[in-house]
Amino acid sequence: MVLRHGDGSAGDANYGAIGADYARFRRPDPRIAALIGAALGDARSILNVWARAGSYEPTDRIVTAVEPSASMRAQRPAHLPAAIDAVAEQLPFEDSRFDAGMASFTVHQWRDLEAGLREMRRVTRGPVVILTCDPGELGRFWLDLYAPEAIAIEAGRYPSIERMTKVLGPRIEVSSVPIPLDCIDGFNEAYYGRPERLLDPAARLACSAWSFVDAAAVSRFERHLKQDLDSGAWDRRLGYLRARPEFEGSLRLVVAQR
Which of 12, 131, 207, 232 could form a cystine bridge with 104, CB 3.0-4.6 A? Predict the structure, then answer.
C-alpha cells in the first residue's frame, strides 16, 4: 500500500501544502527539454511518471501522464492531457504498453524507488529516460555554503546512479546536463548565477527540499545571503558565476535501454 498526503501526494513531500506556485516557477527549459526529446528517440507513445504540472512533456507525441497529487494535476496547462491519478509503484497499465517512459525531478520522492523503476520498465518497451541529480555532486553548488542543511537533505533523498542501474539494467547511459544561466526551470541550481532569486520563499518552495529544512536554518540562510549580497561579499567570492553561461552541477540525464 502506498500512503498519500491529503491532496493525494504519494511520497515524502506534501504538494497540497507546498505546491501552490509550482507551475509558476518550475517551467520546462527548452534546452533541457531538447536533451530529453533526443533521448526519447523516435518513440511515439510516452509515459510520464509523476508528471507534476507537465514540465518536459513533449507536445508532438502521444503522452500519458501519471501524477498522484491533486494540486499538481490541477496546475497542468490546458494544452496538455489530463493526468491519471496513480503512483509509480502501481502503474495501471499492461506490460509493454508504451514506446518510452520518462520521469523528471521525481525519483527522489518515490516511497519505493526499486518498485517504481521496475514498473516503468514493465510497461515500457523502449527507453526509460530519467532527469535526476547525482547526490554526490550537489556540494558543487554555492548553496552548500549558506544552507548546508538543504544540500544534505537533497543528498539524502536523491538515489545514486548505481542504485538505479541495478534495477534498469546494464544498457544505461548517464550524461551531465549543463544548466544555462537563464534557465527558466526554477530548481535550486538554476539560480547558480542569480542568488537573489533564492531569497523569494515561493521560489524556494518550488524545490521540495526546502519544505524539510528547519525554520531556524531557513532564517539563518536568508539573513546570511542577504547580508553578503548587500555587502558585496557574495560577488567578491562568487560573482564570476553571474557571467558563466552554463554550470556543470549535479543534474544528470539517465537513459536506460531495454
Answer: 131
Decide: 197 and 191 in contact? Cβ < 8 Å. Answer: yes
Cell of 13: 513531500
- Whether 37 and 59 have beta carbons less than 8 Å apart is answered as no
The string of DSSP codes covering 77-145 is -TTSPPPB--BTTB--S-TT-BSEEEEES-GGG-S-HHHHHHHHHHHBSS-EEEEEE-GGGGGGSTHHH
* DSSP letter assigned to residue 67: -
What is the dotted CATH code of the domain comprising 15-256? 3.40.50.150
Three-class SS of residue 68? coil
pLDDT single digits (tens) 152-201: 999 999 999 999 999 998 899 999 999 999 999 999 999 999 999 999 99
Q: Give CA–CA dist 198/204, Å, rounded.
A: 6
Is residue 37 a contact partner of residue 56, using CB atoms and an 8 Å limit? no
CB count within 10 Å of CB 99 equals 19
Give the domain ranges of the chain: 15-256
Cβ atoms of residues 225 and 195 within 8 Å? yes
- Taking CB atoms within 8 Å and a gap of at least 24, the contacts of 12-18 are 12/109, 12/111, 12/157, 12/208, 12/212, 13/109, 13/208, 13/211, 13/212, 14/211, 15/69, 15/71, 15/72, 15/208, 16/69, 16/70, 16/71, 17/211, 18/205, 18/208, 18/211
Mean pLDDT within 42-67: 95
Q: Residue 65: helix, strand or coil by DSSP? A: strand
Residue 174 near residue 253, CB atoms below 8 Å: yes
C-alpha cell at 174: 548517464
Question: In this prediction, what percent of the chain has a pLDDT beyond 70?
Answer: 92
Q: Which of residues 4 and 48 earns the better pLDDT score?
A: 48
